[in-house]
Amino acid sequence: MNQPMTITRNDFNQWMVPVFAPANFILVRGEGSRVWDQQGKEYIDFAGGIAVNALGHAHPVAIQALTEQAQKLWHIGNGYTNEPVLRLAKQLTDSTFAEKVFFANSGAEANEAALKLARKYGNDSGVEGKNQIVAFNNAFHGRTLFTVTAGGQPKYSQDFAPLPEGIQHVAYNDLNAAAAVINDQTCAVIVEPIQGEGGVLPADVEFLKGLRELCDRHNALLIFDEVQTGVGRTGALYAYMNTDVVPDVLTTAKALGGGFPIGAMLTTDALAKVLTVGSHGTTYGGNPLACAVANAVFDYINSPEVLEGVKARHQQFVAGIEAINAKYPVFSQVRGEGLLIGCVLKDEYAGQAKQVTNLAAEEGLLALVAGTDVVRFTPSLIIPEADIIEGLQRFERAVARLVK
């Protein structure tokens, strides 16, 4: 048997397609909200795998679900169904507006399914040219050609032209701009209740209500991309529940599997009928392993204790960040909901969000950016209070270094 090879960070540059620029350390182990690198250095995790590790690392509930299912059935393909996928579909439909679910492996795939559903809905409507999609500047919906075009960040899409047509972008939170372009040719409007990658920017409730009215008036589908905001991240099970606005289609991924890849598109009975046998599909989507883990993770999060705990932790984070900012005034505002938090840098520190997270890593804290001017925290939904306190102390040291 071969000896296990020694792996170093340089091997990434050697063997990997260079679409990422990972940190110069390699993480090898995690427990709760702490992780360790190859050298044994410990970090507190405020990044949460980009809002994925909703129960932190190596949570017993997820481990038990995975290991139990791993001894039974891994994959059978979509010519057959399985028990975990049906249980998960029941949990999702019982807990939301939805009546039908399509499972995929990622947020991009969930959004791809939603956009394809919308196009087919428009094409089946009998209204000529009803194929236009309205999306928003600075949005992020994934990296497939369709979803990256729907995303409102040309830096991610312009190199891959020609792009799919019929997608128009307007300013986020600007209802008048949306009203000017939504018409009877619109088949869908896709929006994030909080723009995550776009800077942790919450939608005004009146804006979302206005989009709902415009979609109703023009017989267009309202799609909520809740890939980042879903499964407890905002303190509600899904962010739409904070707004009194119910979408026609909702996409969910990230936290749904707590670290195991899974995504889903949720919709109503009436709209699900638009997609018929063979009109869309996936090989891995809804596989028993992913669904078994997601069942356990979703069930654990979908409880008053966890969801109320997210709101309490939000207050603790904001108070801690504001205390740091009182000493070292580098942030113009702290925004977001629940444990999707954005610290917006003042103009004099514009463009330095990555510098802050690099310094934080040196101090033993994992954090994210959301664009060049916002430091983003998306930790475990059940991160212990002690880890929040210690993590913010490390963050303060990083901010102090930035100022100096």
Automatic annotation (TrEMBL):
Residues noted as binding N(2)-acetyl-L-ornithine in the record, renumbered to the chain: R143, T282
Lineage of the species this protein comes from: Bacteria, Pseudomonadati, Pseudomonadota, Gammaproteobacteria, Moraxellales
InterPro entries reported for this sequence: Ac/SucOrn_transaminase_bac, AcOrn/SuccOrn_fam, Aminotrans_3, Aminotrans_3_PPA_site, Class-III_PLP-dep_AT, PyrdxlP-dep_Trfase, PyrdxlP-dep_Trfase_major, PyrdxlP-dep_Trfase_small
Organism annotation: Acinetobacter brisouii CIP 110357
Cofactor(s) the protein needs: pyridoxal 5'-phosphate
Catalytic activity: N(2)-acetyl-L-ornithine + 2-oxoglutarate = N-acetyl-L-glutamate 5-semialdehyde + L-glutamate
Protein localization: Cytoplasm
Name of the featured protein: Acetylornithine aminotransferase
GO molecular function: identical protein binding; N2-acetyl-L-ornithine:2-oxoglutarate 5-aminotransferase activity; pyridoxal phosphate binding
Positions that bind pyridoxal 5'-phosphate: G107, A108, F140, D225, E226, V227, Q228, T283
Sequence positions bearing N6-(pyridoxal phosphate)lysine: K254
GO cellular component terms given for this protein: cytoplasm
Family, similarity comment: Belongs to the class-III pyridoxal-phosphate-dependent aminotransferase family. ArgD subfamily.
The protein's annotated pathway: Amino-acid biosynthesis; L-arginine biosynthesis; N(2)-acetyl-L-ornithine from L-glutamate: step 4/4
